[in-house]
Amino acid sequence: MIEFEKNITMQKLRDFENLEEIQPSQEWNDSLMNQLNNRKRHQFAKFTIVILLIILVNIGFLINSINHRASQYVDRGKELSIISNEFLINTSSSKN
Amino acid sequence: MVQDADIVKRLKAGDMSVFNAIVNQYSKQVLNTCYRFLLDRDDAEDVSQEVFIEVFQSIKSFKGDSKLSTWIYRIAVSKSLDELKKRKRKKRISSIGKLLHIDEVANWIAGGAMPDKSLNETENMKEVLQALNSLPDNQRVAFTLSKIQGYSNPEIAEIMTTTTIAVESLIYRAKKKISEELKLILQNNN
Question: How far apart are CA B58 and CA B81, in angstroms?
Answer without folding.
Answer: 19
